[in-house]
């Protein structure tokens, strides 16, 4: 047995050199100290810090939270997003005013709400207690005549239950004439109806009804639906208006297969609203004056002279539009006076006269006059001028055409921006008011026309008297925008 000395007994791990009577590895043995060792301390700590309670939350609480989050999300999308979009649009809105993007501008407020124009389907009769039907003054086997009278106030209807079917024109048609009564002492509206039928049976099946009150106040024609090939109905309606100072709120016609002729109605009797509609018969108006006028047709022309303070709408599909139009806003009118001309397969020719009051209320970013003219396959010509007594108020015009030439002529009073373009044809922009003597104000200012862009098919710029205004001043000036697809555009100023 080999006995090692003290120095050789030490191992590589025996590195303790302190003053103690025990070996350092003996520290792993539990001592009798009142303090716990490391393992005991850790175990006691784990007992104190217990895990979170795992008790489940009531499902009703979760359901309430989810409903509240859903309501908050819906309100955010319904209110917050539109407000943010509107704010962004306001911040990014251009300085110039655009008719097409301002829908509220064209929301015309009706003077009097009108009943539906078409009274019923063909053949149906909706009689009322206060309605009188077939009260003939003279009658024979194939003809009959009736007379009615109305006070010149309120609503006046002259309507039929005919439809737009072209074949109906071969069986039921007629004409309407409206004029002033030649008798200056007459105080009532006189309505005369002459009816001619091909048979006595057809006369009995046709109803001519008259109503003095309500939404059907006026004359209603009910034509049977089962007209045979040999059945023919023809009507002649004449309305004589009294020469008295009175106001008719609304004058309404719906006569698809009738031609309509209106005389000079701009005398003592005043009108709040005209709503005239046809289909296959022409509509001719010698002179109509009202706050609002609406004339609609389908396959026949519209001719007329109109004077409106609020809005004029002339709408056709295959018929031409020819008119002398005067826009006369009221002195304290805030809304612009609106004009809409629209057809698709025929010509538009209009002389537009602007007659603004000398003093107009300030309307930032809104013109005094606004017009939209649309065509598709017909020539278009507009001649626009201010009256001598009119203030030179802002006028905004949008014109659209496609397959025919467009000619727009302004007088020397126009000042403002212009934009004209065509895709497959040539464009011409001309200013004829070159002399200082043409200045309508008499200030002998120089005439200025400046082009921001000028190509054979597109031109934008400004025309007027004196220097071109700054961008922030352009809301008080006029603007014209013309767009065509396959035909030439001619824009002339100072004509």
In terms of topology, how is this protein built?
Elements: H1 38-48, H2 59-92, E1 131-133, E2 138-139, E3 143-150, E4 154-160, E5 172-180, E6 189-197, H3 200-205, E7 207-211, E8 218-222, E9 233-241, E10 247-254, E11 258-264, E12 270-277, E13 283-296, E14 302-315, E15 321-327, E16 337-342, E17 348-354, E18 369-374, E19 380-386, E20 395-401, E21 406-410, E22 416-422, E23 427-431, E24 447-455, E25 458-465, E26 478-484, E27 489-493
Parallel strand pairs: 4-8, 4-10, 5-9, 5-11, 10-12, 11-13, 12-13, 13-14, 14-15, 14-16, 15-17, 16-18, 17-19, 18-20, 19-21, 20-26, 21-27, 22-26, 23-27
Antiparallel strand pairs: 1-7, 2-3, 3-6, 6-9, 7-8, 22-25, 24-25
Polypeptide structure, described:
With about 500 residues, the protein is mainly β. Helix content is about 10%, strand content about 40%. The chain has three helices and 27 strands. The chain has helices spanning about 40-50, 60-90, 200-205; strands spanning about 130-135, 140, 145-150, 155-160, 170-180, 190-195, 205-210, 220, 235-240, 245-255, 260-265, 270-275, 285-295, 300-315, 320-325, 335-340, 350-355, 370-375, 380-385, 395-400, 405-410, 415-420, 425-430, 445-455, 460-465, 480-485, 490-495. The chain has a 27-stranded mixed beta sheet that branches. A hairpin with a 3-residue loop joins strand 2 (about 140) and strand 3. It is extended and about 135 Å long. Residues about 25-30, about 50-55, about 90-110 and about 120-125 have low confidence and may be disordered.
Low-confidence stretches: 23-30, 49-54, 88-112, 120-124
Give average pLDDT, whole number: 81
The run of helices and strands is: HHEEEEEEHEEEEEEEEEEEEEEEEEEEEE
Question: What Rg do the Cα atoms give?
Answer: 42 Å
Oligomer: single chain
Going by helix content, strand content and strand pairing, the class is mainly beta
The percent range for strand residues is: 35-45%
Largest sheet: 27 strands, mixed
How far apart, in Å, are the first and last alpha carbons? Answer: 138 Å
Number of helices: 3
How many DSSP E strands? 27
- What is the 3D shape? extended
* Helix share, percent: 10-25%
């Amino acid at each position: 047995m080999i006995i090692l000395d003290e120095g050789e007994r030490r191992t590589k791990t025996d590195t303790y050199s302190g003053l103690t009577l025990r070996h350092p590895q003996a520290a792993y043995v539990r001592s009798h100290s009142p303090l716990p060792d490391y393992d005991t301390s850790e175990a006691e700590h784990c007992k104190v810090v217990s895990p979170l309670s795992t008790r489940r939350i009531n499902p009703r609480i979760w359901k309430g939270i989810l409903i509240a989050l859903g309501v908050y999300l819906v309100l955010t999308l319904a209110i917050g997003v539109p407000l943010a979009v509107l704010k962004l649009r306001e911040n990014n809105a251009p300085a110039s005013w655009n008719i097409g993007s301002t829908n509220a501008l064209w929301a015309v407020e009706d003077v009097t709400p009108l009943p539906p124009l078409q009274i019923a389907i063909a053949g149906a009769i909706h009689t009322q207690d206060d309605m009188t039907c077939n009260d003939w003054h003279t009658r024979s086997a194939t003809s009959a005549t009736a007379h009615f009278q109305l006070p010149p106030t309120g609503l006046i209807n002259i309507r039929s239950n005919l439809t737009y079917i072209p074949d109906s024109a071969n069986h039921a048609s007629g004409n309407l004439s409206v004029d002033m009564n030649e008798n200056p002492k007459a105080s009532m509206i006189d309505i005369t109806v002459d009816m001619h039928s091909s048979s006595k049976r057809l006369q009995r099946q046709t109803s001519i009804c008259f109503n003095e009150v309500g939404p059907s106040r006026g004359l209603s024609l009910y034509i049977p639906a089962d007209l045979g090939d040999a059945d023919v109905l023809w009507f002649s309606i004449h309305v004589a208006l009294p020469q008295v100072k009175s106001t008719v709120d609304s004058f309404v016609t719906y006569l698809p297969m009738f031609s309509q002729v209106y005389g000079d109605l701009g005398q003592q009797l005043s009108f709040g609203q005209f709503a005239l509609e046809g289909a296959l018969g022409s509509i001719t108006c010698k002179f109509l004056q009202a706050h609002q006028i609406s004339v609609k047709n389908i396959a026949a022309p519209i001719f007329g002279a109109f004077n409106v303070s609020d809005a004029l709408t002339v709408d056709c599909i295959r018929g031409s539009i020819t008119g002398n139009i005067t826009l006369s806003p009221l002195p304290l009118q805030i809304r612009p006076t609106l004009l809409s001309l629209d057809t698709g397969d025929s010509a538009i020719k209009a002389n537009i006269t602007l007659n603004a009051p000398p003093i107009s209320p300030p309307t930032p970013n809104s013109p005094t006059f606004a017009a939209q003219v649309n065509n598709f396959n017909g020539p278009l010509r507009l001649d626009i001028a201010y009256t001598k007594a009119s203030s030179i108020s802002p006028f905004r015009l949008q014109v659209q055409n496609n397959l025919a030439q467009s000619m727009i002529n302004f007088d020397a009073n126009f000042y403002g921006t212009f934009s004209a373009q065509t895709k497959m044809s040539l464009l011409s922009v001309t200013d004829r008011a070159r002399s200082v003597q043409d200045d309508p104000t008499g200030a002998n200012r120089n005439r200025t026309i400046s082009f921001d862009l000028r190509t054979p098919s597109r031109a934008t710029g400004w025309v007027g008297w004196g220097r071109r205004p700054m961008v922030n001043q352009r809301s008080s000036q006029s603007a014209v925008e013309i767009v065509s697809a396959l035909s030439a555009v001619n824009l002339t100023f100072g004509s």
